Model the fold of this input.
Amino acid sequence: MYEIKGVRATPGGRISVRFHQHGYVERPDRRAGRVAETLFGEGAGCLTALVLLASVGLFTLLRKNGAPEAAVTACMWVFVVAVCYGAVIALLHWASGVADVLLIAVTFPALLIPGYRRMLLRRWRGGAPESEPGWVPGAALSGVWHQVDPQGGAVVTVQRTDGSVTAYVPPADKARNLHDHFDTLLRQGRPAPAPYQQPAYGAPGYPPQPWQGNPGHRHD
Done:
């Protein structure tokens, strides 16, 4: 799976494009979601863990070398803040799982509806991308073009088999990646040409051999 965020699609607005083996998914790229992912996502958790380790090492080093008390105290406060921030991130992820359980418990009768049941299974297990809203199979692509935008950047234009055309303007450093992933899906979606098979000897269409001469010319 490969995802490119901050893509401006026409039509479609600002989206993120997530590529899978046999297709891609377009998702609205909302500002609130980007902020939440930046502040409380996996990246923030990893950074917080690094700050924790660094603060512990620095605290030990400062105490060992007899550093000023103000520096030691500041390092200790960095550690405390990092612990609290990490706890908030862990609590939010835990609360997200609890919310899913409560949602199922409250809406239990609605599980009799197949569409609702599939939606919950997708959310609970991270189901196949083919079942996500915005899924486009690679076989639906008929053409991909990469062009330089006169206003700056690049435009990746995609045409589907139904005739619809979408222009994607990604971040400048992602334009080539976006085009290459679309192009890969396009090539995979096209049927491979059948291998050439030479007709059997003597069958119609069998090419004459040099030693056979021209079968249409008779020597007297």
About this structure: The chain has a mean pLDDT of 76.
